[in-house]
Amino acid sequence: MVRIRKVLIVRGAFGEMYEPAWCRALNDLGIFCEIFDAHTYTPPGILGRVERRVLWGPGIRRLRKALIAKVADLRPDATLLYQGHYFDAQTVEALKALTFVTGYHNDDPFGSRAKLFRYRFLSSALRHYDAFHVYRPINEVDAQRLGIPRVGRLMPYYLPWLDYPRALNSDDLRKWGADVVFAGHVEHDIRVDCLAGAVRAGHKVRIHGEGKYWGRALPKEIYETLCPINLALGEDYRKALCASKIAAAFFSKWNRDVYTRRSFEIPACGAFLMAERTPEMREIFREGEEAEYFSSLEEFLEKVTFYLRNHAVRERVARKGLERVRESGHDIHSRMRQWCADVGAWMNTKI
After folding, report:
1. What are phi and psi of 145, to 5 degrees?
2. Cα separation of 250 and 213, whole Å?
3. Cα separations in angstroms, 109 against 42, 78, 93, 188
4. What is the pLDDT along the chain (351 residues), one digit of tens a residue?
5. For the domain 6-157+331-350, what is the CATH superfamily, name and number?
6. ∠ CA 79-85-90, rounded to 5°
7. How far apart are CA 16 and CA 37, in angstroms?
8. What's the CATH architecture for 170-327?
9. Where in the chain is CATH 3.40.50.2000?
10. Which long-range contacts (CB under 8 A, 24 or more apart) does 223-227 make?
11. Fewer CB within 10 Å, N- or C-terminus of the chain?
12. Terminal CA-to-CA distance of the chain, rounded, Å?
């Protein structure tokens, strides 16, 4: 197996939990890693936003040329195109003459959303990659069907420098505390009914997300009860988890998720995880011992009521969940070890 010594990550997402976290973890493991920020090659303001949306213009052409020059100068063992929607097949082929080209996408570029205008270059370029890591099981089948020669699954993770239990003061508990908390986007699925049902049952519920979209989805009286609904980011997000008795996790049907990043962040923060039941989640955390699951509105409300009344049981499950997420290697460093092992093995098959 080829040993990975130098990596270039091409940034295509927004958020410190993505490429910057990968780069930090790889450097922690003794692997030189540098980020090439694709976003900086388009102009500021509205012109840049238009170029990034339509993926066309002088900034996009400049970006592709600059990346090839960067790889030619740095000569990394592997170049990771994170999301990769800026790059066409011609660019990928040019990179392959200089480095091992692999990719990753935390959303679902293979399902119905793959028809989006945003994914047109990625969709046509995928079969030209040397390899690709996907986020969820169904994407392994999707990627193989597209003809990507080497495919692996890399699950989400928690960040040990951010996701850990916090001892909160009374002001934090008052500001962030809830019986049930959910942080995330809205979809017209079970999440709306569950959260509205918890409010109607008399529980204190907090939602952290984009308020204008939640306002359109929730019944008017429920939305007015929960207002204001705002994003909770960074330390605020972790405080919201640690201050709440139950942290709910709903899985995106748009992305065909069977777990999500919050599946690991919530227990890593020492919070009680109540997630939609999937076979994959039941393999990760033991049901009723390390996390709790539900498959319907009725089951969600029944279990919320039970765990709010049984503090000791809830605390025990949260504690066991924290132990499991740590012991089973669901942190970013463990995922990067897997990534290096996969890419090293794939590079060996290409030689």
Report:
1. -65, -30
2. 16
3. 23, 22, 20, 20
4. 678 999 999 999 989 999 999 999 999 999 999 999 999 998 888 888 888 888 999 999 999 999 999 999 999 999 999 999 999 999 999 999 999 999 999 999 987 666 678 899 999 999 999 999 999 999 999 999 999 999 999 999 999 999 999 999 999 999 999 999 999 999 999 999 999 999 999 999 999 999 999 999 999 999 999 999 999 999 999 999 999 999 999 999 999 999 999 999 999 999 999 999 999 999 999 999 999 999 999 999 999 999 999 999 999 999 999 999 999 999 999 999 999 999 999 999 876
5. Glycogen Phosphorylase B; (3.40.50.2000)
6. 65
7. 13
8. 3-Layer(aba) Sandwich (3.40)
9. 6-157+331-350, 170-327
10. 225/199, 226/199
11. C
12. 10
Give the residue carrying structure tokens 């040397």: 130
Q: Which residue has the tokens 């748009």?
A: 254
Q: 187: which 2 tokens?
A: 């979809």
Residue 206: both structure tokens together? 């907090």
Tokens representing 338? 């897997």
